[in-house]
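Budget justification note: compute hours in this period were largely spent on complex prediction jobs such as the one shown. Inputs:
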Amino acid sequence: MSESIPAGAAPRYQQIAEALIRDIERSRYAVGALLPPEPALSQHYGVSRHTVREAIRRLADMGLVSRQQGIGTRVKAKSAAQRYVAGLSDLAELMQYTQRTTLKLIGERRLQADAALASLLRCRAGQPWIEFETCRYPAAGREPISHTRIYVLPEYEGIRDELKGSVWVYGLIEKRGGEKIVEVQQEIGGAAIPAHAARLLQVKPRSPGMMVTRYYLGRRERLLSVSVNYYPENRFKLSTRWRLEWDGAKA
Amino acid sequence: MSESIPAGAAPRYQQIAEALIRDIERSRYAVGALLPPEPALSQHYGVSRHTVREAIRRLADMGLVSRQQGIGTRVKAKSAAQRYVAGLSDLAELMQYTQRTTLKLIGERRLQADAALASLLRCRAGQPWIEFETCRYPAAGREPISHTRIYVLPEYEGIRDELKGSVWVYGLIEKRGGEKIVEVQQEIGGAAIPAHAARLLQVKPRSPGMMVTRYYLGRRERLLSVSVNYYPENRFKLSTRWRLEWDGAKA
DNA sequence: AAGTGGTCTAGACCACCGA
DNA sequence: CGGTGGTCTAGACCACTTA
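Corresponding output:
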């Protein structure tokens, strides 16, 4: 072959990828069905098998097809699902204290969840927890940014000794138990600051604020820790950037 | 070459990929530096250039290196950064009104940003906007969930006619202008509900609530729309799930 | 002009699957 | 067994960057 390609034209494999995508969208190749084998495509488009494979690789990256040795290339979806994603390189970004902050340990107690706490912590009543009460301060200022109750499994009791300073609880859990935090569920709502927290935060009871509850889960959905945070008005903002991304995370 | 590979051994390109990863981790190739050119690697490992490219492709998929035609392959990171990601298949999930809700248009006006508004909307003073004031209601109940001021570029004035019902503004923008929303920046903080919004939300002025500001951006960071939302306490919670994912999103 | 990565060919053998 | 995708070779020309 080796026909000269017009300048500015897309590479051959990309043209073929586009052709295949069109064929999938127009249901020439139905979802669940097999694409023609690579040698057939290679002959049909008059290119080498390598070029066809390059095209199919694009489709696979987009999640449109999946390949299986010995079987073939199966159509998995009619169109590349676009989605918006947000990413964190580190869990510390979740809290977004860009400036240095200090964690102050106010108190600690062992307890068993009563009905109310069990509901908040999504566990069964009677479940034993250790509760750390903390406030977080900016390095320079005096007013605390937040009041936080941290609940951890009793087996992580020892983290108390390392809790001082600007360390993050989940880091301590990962360091000690060796259990990795695989998922964090975060709930945010407006809330009046309860009297006890208000005192520590130096605001009036029932002042407006934000309540953030975070559930830290390990492998197999195991709940390792829960934190309940109160942020008074105007001291802290949570921000998140959602970006459109093509399935497969290609730049 | 074509030495027989021991059964069960990893493919050659994978072995080479692992060797390169080791070399990067051990700083034989520093972050920011260039990997040796493909022909050199091909000769060094005694494989074809294709095989080397397959290995480097793995590294690129993991975000360890980036390639640039005419320049070379540059090391971008020492290790495949694990990260936590959250995904939305649709922007509607950002708002998370699981039940059906209705948008009620309260008012509309054209305006030019004064200093305060310009700061909020991150634009220059004098920039013309159209402001829609809306409340969102659950289907059955009476109390509104939220009060929202939506700012859009004047060119999208026409979306007013479609704003009624439970439609989402960004959908209208995409439908009309053809401009795609590529990024959404979201800021959340606790806030007292201002008097005007409080009246519509049927709460007392300065009651605790949550303020959510969302910036909708198109291609090239172009700001298309901004929404300022107030949610009273206990009527709505934002929840997000962050999951650990390996860079490159390879299963 | 020289060197880089990007694309492409025409072969080959292999591991895996279903009949 | 024949056919699938997976790996690999030994070439080739091209587009792009730097000098």
